[in-house]
Amino acid sequence: MAHEDWTVDRLHVALPHSASRQQLLQDVNLTPLEELPAVLEGWAKAAEQLEAARPLIETARRTASAALPVELEARDVTADVMRDAEPRREHRASRGRGAA
Length: 100
Prior knowledge:
- The chain is mainly α.
- It has helices spanning 8-14, 18-30, 36-63, 78-97.
- It contains 4 helices and no strands.
- The N and C termini lie far apart (55 Å).
């Protein structure tokens, strides 16, 4: 699908998991209007990557082999997520300290 053909509904349908669909809707509903084009651009890129990977995913499903194609191998991002969450945890902790 051409990049300019994406709509919020088409993005929603293109996402494979309910959690990602819910996150899309949350992002659309809670993002300030001036930031919305950039947020939607990010979701469109993600949907395009998923669409491009669809043939590889379908091939992996059909072959049902234990080895995934190199392009689909998972990468452990736990350390990245924990690092990104750190400022939020510090912010929550500092909010609680000042309450009387």
